[in-house]
Amino acid sequence: MRTDDLVTLLATGAGAVAPNAAARGYTAAIGWGALGAALLMGVLLGVRHDLGVALLLPMFWVKLAFVACLAATSLLAVLRLSRPGLRLAWVPGALAAPVLAMWVLAAFALMRAQPAQRAGLFFGDTWASCPFLVALLSAPVFAAVLWATRGLAPTRLRLAGAAAGLLSGAVGALVYCLHCPELEAPFLGFWYLLGMLIPTAAGALLGPRLLRW
Amino acid sequence: MQRMQETGRLNAGEARLRNLLLRGLAGEEPAYHAFLQELSAHLRAFLRKRLARLPDEVEDLVQESLLAIHNQRHTYDAGQPLTAWIHAIAKYKLIDLLRRRAKRDLLNDPLDEEFDFASASDTDAADARRDLGKLLHQLPDRQRLPIVHMKLEGLSVAETAQLTGMSESAVKVGVHRGLKALAIMIRGDA
What is the CA radius of gyration of chain A? Predict the structure, then answer.
């Protein structure tokens, strides 16, 4: 086929294209994924029984803000990485900011505490299960967000996969906040982050294979 | 002074092409046709410069990039420079080709030069080595028939649906998936 014929073939009946495909795709993916994560949590874990009390604690909102900031900035990263020719620019810095802020809080908490209490602040009661539960809850979002990314055109596949994984980890963690009893900054700054990094690593691993076009 | 004139010419070229694309995305078929036509000449110049050692591959890659740009046209952000978008897609397809050929020495070629819209564009469309027409006929009927009737014969969605007995949405999906499948077949055959 000559190139001119291909041009005619492609243009014929091409029709209009709805704008903002990326934003619409990710809105749907996050919506369905979060719904899946909420159902998983409802069935497997349940909401923490003292949620009403927790809602009054400032640290509960700090935790929620930490995870929500990571979700928002990783969404920005995915939106850029899934379309050709867009630069990440300041987004990596914005991704690091909530983590650094949580680490500063953690450092203060550890310095203020008695030496004997420090291990308790770091490990809490649920360190052994927290990262895996965050990763588990992120699974529906992970599948949905990778699917949405496949419908776009990422050119840096590993990075796009990692950003999609981090986004799903953050949304999973956001849902997990409703179950998790931990509120100490040293715990959140490590175990929550680790939980979100599990789908991030999975995304980086799968990206080059799943996102090719 | 000369440099300024060149930049001006480049910007004017980009602005015109961008205008054609945006009108095409809004559904104006002649504008979209003109966009692809002009784009193929620019892609040819761009890729010929970067595939100097593989001149036989140029036209195949022009076609592959055109198909990719068409299939991913919903990823263009109107606020973004068109050159950056086209450049990124062409580079992605170029690197994909070089990987497929596993020619390590070619990977060292500089790929970062600016996509120069002002440079002489290349309109003498040589024939590609790979025949997309033949690949097209390997698609399953539910994708091949909508493409043949709508895209080659120029029938409408409704006419194609009537002719094939498919629903109108199945016809649209068939065209869309068929062109994506074509891109995957190209990727697999090199």
Answer: 20
Interface of B with A in 101-120 (CB under 8 A): none
Cα dist from A140 to A6, A24, A175, A201, whole Å: 39, 18, 12, 16
- Between the alpha carbon of residue B51 and those of residues A113, B95, B107, the distances in Å are 64, 11, 11
Identify which of A1, A17, A22 has the shortest CB distance to residue B73: A17
Model confidence, pTM: 0.86
pLDDT cut 90: percent of chain A above it? 74
How far from B109 is each of B61, B102, B112, B113, B117, CA to CA, in Å?
Answer: 17, 14, 9, 10, 20
Give the right CATH number for B130-190 from 1.10.10.10, 1.10.3810.10, 1.10.1370.30, 3.20.20.70: 1.10.10.10
The amino acid occupying position B136 is: L
Which residues in chain B are closer than 8 Å to A85, comparing Cβ atoms? 80-81, 84-89
Return mean pLDDT, chain B.
Answer: 84
Q: Residues A102, A189: contact at Cβ < 8 Å?
A: yes
Residue B78 — φ and ψ, nearest 5°? -60, -20
By C-alpha distance, which of B25, B66, B75, B15 is closest to B42? B66
Enter the ipTM. Answer: 0.88
How confident is the model at residue B6, as a pLDDT? 59
How is chain A split into domains, by residue range? 22-210
Inter-chain contact A155–B89, Cβ cutoff 8 Å? Answer: yes
